[in-house]
Every structure is written in C-alpha cells, then in structure tokens.
Amino acid sequence: MSPxxxxxxxxxxxxxxxxxxxxxxxHEDPISLAVGEPSDxxxxxxxxxxxxxxxEGRTRYGAVPGLIALRERVAADHAERTGAPTSADNVVVTxxxxxxxxDALRCILEPGDEMIVPLPAWPTFLDQPRWLSAKAVTxxxxxxxxxxxxxxxxxxxxxxxxxxxxxxxNPSGRVWxxxxxxxxxxxxxxxxxxxxSDEVYRDLSLVGPAPEPVSIDPEVASRTIVVDSFSKxxxxxxxRVGTVTAPAELASAITALMSSTVTHACAxxxxxxxxxxxxxxxxEASRLERHRRCRDRAVAALDALDGVALSGSDSGxxxxxxxSGWISEVGLEDDHALCAHLKDTxxxxxxxxxxFGASGxxxxxxxxxxxxxxxxxxxxxxxKT
Length: 385
Prior knowledge:
The chain has helices at 7-10, 16-21, 44-55, 68-82, 97-106, 123-131, 149-155, 178-191, 213-216, 230-233, 248-259, 267-277, 282-303, 324-329, 335-346, 370-383; strands at 31-32, 91-94, 114-118, 135-139, 160-166, 194-198, 224-229, 242-245, 318-319, 348-349, 351-352, 362-365. The protein contains 16 helices and twelve strands.
C-alpha cells in the first residue's frame, strides 16, 4: 500500500496546445503553428520599466491584489470602455490569465455545480471546473462557430452557476455579434447567473470593438467577472500578468485566496505592465496591422485548399478551419491523424480540433514571423498536391 493522489489529479491531462507545440518530428526544419503566442517582442518600454524597478529595488513583497497604480489604471480603462463605475477595489492583478480564471472559479463553484461552456472552447475552460469537482457543461456551436443563445438557455439547470463568454474566441478566432452577446447577457440576468467573460483577445480584434457583456449592459457588472491578460495584448507571455475585474466582494475573496497561494503577481512584471498601459497606442496599432497581414495570408491560403472550409478569422491569433473533407480525401482516421501526418511530412505543428470540442478541424496560429508563415502556408499547399 502507498499514499495516492486524488481522483481528479489521477485523471488530469496536460494542455493539448502545449503538447502539440512540444511534438517531436524528424523534419529538418519544423515550424510551430500550435501555440497562441505573439511572435513580436513586447514594447521596449516594458523592458525599460522592469530594469528600472530592479535597479530601484522594487522587488520586495507588495500588496496581494497588486500595485495600486496598476489596479487604478485597469479600473479606469474598464470604466471608460464599458460605462460601468469601477475602482481599484474591483481589480485584482494575477500571475497570468489562467490563475485569474481559476481563482474566480474557486470562489464561486461548489462540488457538483455547473459552468456553461460554449464550444469550441479552450481546453482550460473544460479542465478547471473539474479540479473543483464541478462540471463544464458544453454547448455545441453553430456551423459558423458562434454560440446559439437558445441552446445555452436549454443547457442551464438548477446547478448552473456560471455562463462562460469568450469573445474574441480561442480557438475559433470569432468575435461574437452584439445580438448574441446581448441575448446571453439577458439570460444571465433572468437566471441569476454569473458571467465569466474571458477578454484576453479583446484588443486583437480585427473587425472593430468586440461587444462585451458590461458594455452592452453596465448593470451586469454586479454579476460579471472580466478576465484579461498582458500576454496577448502586449506580447508579455512569459511575464505572467493577468487581471480580474469583478464585484468588490468577489475581488476581496480572490485576494484572500491569493494571500494563501501565490501571495501576489511578480512585482517587477507589474511595473512592466503599468508601463505597457501607458503607451500611446502606436505600438499596438502597428502590431495589429501586422496581425491583419498574417491573418489575410492564412485565410487566403486556407480558402484556396480543396477539402478545407473556414468560417472566418476575426481576431488574433487563430484560424480554425474545418478539414473534415481533407481527412476523408486522404483516408485518415481523424483530425489527430491529419495533424500527425502534417507534422511528420511537412514539419508543421498544429493542434487538432477534438480537444477544443470540435472534431474534424485544426487550430492554426498565424502569429509567427511573416517569412516563416509564408513557408508554412506553402507546405500546407504542398501537402494537398
């Protein structure tokens, strides 16, 4: 006999996106299109602010919910964008977007509770409730990869506590239209549910401002948790800074939880994040224009392939095409097999659609150096000939 880990841990699985990125291939020149990581370096002001913080000794323990100046800036931005009164008491700085999501769920879900997750969905949305002995209830998307509010309503039960909103979406790259978002907001009000709005890709929208629950109806700020991150917006993936903007009671509970777990997000990274929020928008606009070029190249290449259907790619960093025709054409079993085939024959690392709840697809992240993207797209074309 020996001590055992619990059932949830025993059944745990690693991230499929990280697994795909680490995939082994014998190809002499592999290209990863698997990880949603902007290839651009952070703005130079980020490194300068971090160096200054280190030089000035601002590396000690700090306030658990984060630097007050950073929280005030996040709150002011949220209030200006949504019209909902917001203060630093509503904001907690976290060690990335994943802890922001997990800590919010820890403070809301009880064992047996349910969270509605529209598909296709980032696997983290499916895994995190499981760690809390709760359940992610998935709702299939329409063929256009957008949510169906009626299906979401039908999936709600007496155990439902949260509806997840993720727009722009991962892996779909789609921005949810105003009418569908508004219908889900109204549903949350009618059923007295929380809205967990993952807005990590909000500033990467290529089709104008993405509708947000609180901007549609500022009154739902009292039941909405907004999760954001500096990883995608400012290419600060390794700096590990995220934020939760939520009702003060929930923000206080998350702060108490963090005081027993991570203490606070990295102090140096917080000063860097504050500098990023102080930019004049030039860097962001230039980077978004590069994303648009990459998106357009990827979409054109995918649209030209027989057996591939793309609903659209409205934002960074992804295209999520239906490749079921391609799979059938070459006689492969499923999307896992197609991705393995492309890895071995073309050196292309992609993520199968099945882990996102959408079989017969793959996720392609086009935010890599433009010459490498051109090479990768050329290999996709070669794989079809």
